[in-house]
Amino acid sequence: MTSLYQVTIRGKVVETVTPKKKKVKRWFYFDIRKALDPAVDREEAIVGVPEDRMVRTDFGREVVLDVSSTEREYALLMYPVSQVFDWDTWQDGFDEYWRGDQNDNTRREFRAFKKQVLENFKSYHVPVITLDRSTSKEAVCVVFEKVNTGGKPLDAFELVTAMYAASGHELRKDWYGDDLTKGRHRRLAETLRPAGSDTGIIAEVSNTDFLQAVSLFHTRELRQKAERDGKQGKELPAVTGNRQALLNLPLEAYKKYEAQVESGFVQAAKFLHTQHIYRIFDLPYQSQIVPLAAILADIGESWEHEANRALLIRWYWNGVFGELYGSAVETRIARDFMEVPVWLNGGPEPSTVSETMFRADRLKTMRMRLSAAYKGVNALLMKEGAQDFRSGQKFDHTVFFGENVDVHHIFPQEWCKRQRPPIKAAIYDSIINKTPLSYRTNRIVGGVAPSEYLSKLERGSQTTPPIARENLDFYLRSHLIDPDLLRADSFDAFLVDRQKRLLALIEQATGKAAYSGGVEEEGQDVEIDGDAAEAELTIAET
Asked: For the residues 123-132, what does the mean pLDDT come to?
């Protein structure tokens, strides 16, 4: 009730918090056209904007949404939620702004919006449970327990489960299994699981992820049927896997595609392993598994053909390094599902490939595992044949888990901190100064200068045989490291040289040249999370 009051009646900016618990001030708007679109979940039509009513990107330099005046609201068909109980004045201004016969359709849109959305607020009945004095304490306790338990809205899977139950189908049993059968959730979780582990790379695929993939097939079938019937443009149903599509997914469609989609997820796990992504912890995007699985389910075994596999790999890494699967991905998932198979058959590039732009200086700001691109660089190094400094082994599946491989510093942290002046953490923590190494090798590296730990590897020890200099240099080059710069402890020169080499690696994976731009301001050390819906700057430790 407090939330409804603040947003709809109070008439002042709402003080709230983001999912990350950051305090913000927001005005809320209905996107009128989205609210009227039956293919769009009504929640997606609600937009929150900052206190000045302007949404900016590129760190405040570019305004992408401006509703700072009523004229801008009229022009963009953005209705303020703060006026849902008093729409007459706004409508008068709207009708005046869109006056004339040529704008009759626009005025008609608002009238439809008012009838379908705004009038619901005035006619909505708030449910009330009344307990009189004669109600026993036990009954009161039961009521409060039922009303106050949970507080979590039913997700799409639970609602679809209820709908299918009416037709006698147990969707929950399909997913979770029972005492006699292993459910689909467990089968996917155990796909390609490493020895000694309970789960594999696709263990976090959710029930709604699975339904979303099935929904892509069903909505595409509906669209194809409409095309055969001669429909065009807006008459065609959208291919989507959004919440509304899941709630409209018939049981027959689910049964038709469930086995095919499960096979697609299994193939997705195999694909990720070919890219040297073995752990969920190292997975760039969980959300990108859905279109990957749907595409593989659609094209079947042909993904293993060399030409198709090369294009799929390119699409995947463009999604990662374009940082395109971080938020608001439902539209992108549907587009990739439609566009990638066409591309494999000689059609145009999918938008995920054509839209990707990777900044050359982005490597300097990739310092945290939360970044998809950070994880992507690590996987690419292993995929391209990086060999452990100590053992000379490539990081295949067996070595990765057997040797406890992880990302480690090349110029150790302690050495960087001891320099005069000390090297900033914002610099030495970037992915440019990191590479995959086994746990035992990282212990040898320790906190000493590179020249010192390289000499230690060459000399050997009681537990480690000596390594020939030329062999060690070969291992270093497999990590895109210049051995001469490392032996000379030339940190600055190493940083410039390896950045160029890593950029070339990314360009090879994406098939696109990086571009220069977005230069950081001098003296400001910030972590830029390219995946975040809102760019948040975190001051790095120095």
From this structure: 83
In a domain, 137, yes or no: no
Nearest to 28 by CA among 79, 72, 64: 79
pLDDT tens per residue, range 469-528: 999 999 999 999 999 999 999 999 999 999 999 999 999 999 988 776 543 433 333 333
Nearest to 258 by CA among 183, 351, 166, 339: 183
299 and 380 in a common domain: no
Q: What is the DSSP letter of 515?
A: B
Average pLDDT, the chain: 87
Rounded to the nearest angstrom, the gap between the alpha carbon of residue 266 and the centroid of all alpha carbons in its chain is 20
Measured distance CA(200)–CA(269) in Å, rounded: 8
225 vs 115, 212, 220, 231, CA distance in Å? 32, 20, 9, 9
What pLDDT score was predicted for residue 176? 94
Do 192 and 59 share a structural domain? no
Domain count, the chain: 3
Q: What is the pLDDT of residue 526?
A: 34
Of the residues 299, 333, 354, the one at which a domain ends: 354
Same domain, 171 and 292: yes
Do residues 372 and 344 both lie within one domain?
Answer: no
**Domain-located, residue 281:** yes
Q: How many CB atoms lie within 10 A of CB 361?
A: 16
Residues contacting residue 327 through CB under 8 Å, at least 6 positions apart: 531, 532, 533
| Residue numbers of the domain that contains 339 | 156-354
Radius of gyration of the chain (CA): 28
Summarize the confidence of residues 265-293 as an average pLDDT. Answer: 94
| Residue 97 covered by a domain | yes
For CA atoms 77, 79, 80, 83, the dihedral sign is positive
Tokens for 175? 């997913």
- Give the tens place of pLDDT for each residue, 433-468: 999 888 888 888 889 999 999 999 999 887 788 999
Reported as a single tens digit per residue, the pLDDT across 313-343 is 999 999 999 999 987 799 999 999 999 999 9
512 and 415 belong to one structural domain: yes
- Which of 332, 354, 376 is at the close of a domain? 354
Residue 132 in any domain: the answer is no
Fill in the DSSP letter of residue 422: P
Residues 387 and 412 in one domain: yes
349 and 367 co-located in one domain: no
- Provide the 10 A C-beta neighbour count for residue 22: 10
Q: How far apart are CA 420 and CA 28, in angstroms?
A: 51
Does the pLDDT of residue 403 top 80, yes or no? no
pLDDT band at 534 (very low <50, low <70, confident <90, very high): very low
The residue to which tokens 């095919």 are assigned: 260
Q: For residues 483 and 473, what is the distance between their CA atoms, to the nearest angstrom?
A: 6
Are 537 and 528 contacting, i.e. CB atoms less than 8 angstroms apart? yes
Residue 539 has pLDDT above 60, yes or no: no
Contacts of residue 239, Cβ cutoff 8 Å, sequence gap at least 6: 216, 219, 220, 223, 334, 337, 338
Task: Tell whether the model's pLDDT for residue 130 goes beyond 80.
Answer: yes
Asked if residue 309 and residue 213 are part of one domain, the reply reads yes
